[in-house]
Amino acid sequence: MCEVRGTPLSVDEVFAAVQDRAAGGTAVFVGTVRDHDHAREVSGLSYSAHPSVERELRRVMEKVAADFPVRAIAAAHRVGDLEIGDLAVVVAASCPHRAEAFAACRRLIDDLKAEVPIWKQQAFADGEDEWVGAC
């Protein structure tokens, strides 16, 4: 599963995508929209993405799968307007052992945030907004 979409994300959907009978460990990371950033109240945010986003996400996923004994890997990221509490990103990795699953999942979210062309515009309660780099 490798998706960037404008509809709500599902932890169950991503978890189901990485189920594998040979996996002894599955790690899932869920990123949600929080109500603050750097001591400022956030009222909502919007994600936008470059047209190459799914190709780049797949490239990141393939690198993680090559570096860890991944049985299955999945990532879904939301674009568009999100409210506080909405799921922004869900990633998961299943591996033969838990330590590998944790490491693969961590690497997946870290590399996604650093390398996949998705940008966030945060709206603050005071009416100001800011763009945040790749996320």
TrEMBL record:
Catalytic activity: 2 [molybdopterin-synthase sulfur-carrier protein]-C-terminal-Gly-aminoethanethioate + cyclic pyranopterin phosphate + H2O = molybdopterin + 2 [molybdopterin-synthase sulfur-carrier protein]-C-terminal Gly-Gly + 2 H(+)
Gene Ontology biological-process annotations: Mo-molybdopterin cofactor biosynthetic process
UniProt keyword Transferase, yes or no: yes
InterPro entries for this protein: MoaE_sf, Mopterin_biosynth_MoaE
Enzyme class: transferase
Pfam families named among the record's database cross-references: MoaE
Entry annotated with the keyword Transferase: yes
Biological pathway: Cofactor biosynthesis; molybdopterin biosynthesis
GO molecular-function terms, A-Z: molybdopterin synthase activity
Taxonomic superkingdom: Bacteria
EC number(s) recorded for this UniProt protein: 2.8.1.12
Keywords noted in UniProt: Molybdenum cofactor biosynthesis, Transferase
Transmembrane segments annotated in the record for this chain: none
Quaternary organization: Heterotetramer of 2 MoaD subunits and 2 MoaE subunits. Also stable as homodimer. The enzyme changes between these two forms during catalysis.
Entry's family note: Belongs to the MoaE family.
Described purpose of this protein according to its UniProt entry: Converts molybdopterin precursor Z into molybdopterin. This requires the incorporation of two sulfur atoms into precursor Z to generate a dithiolene group. The sulfur is provided by MoaD.
Protein name per UniProt: Molybdopterin synthase catalytic subunit 1
Source organism of the structure: Actinomadura harenae
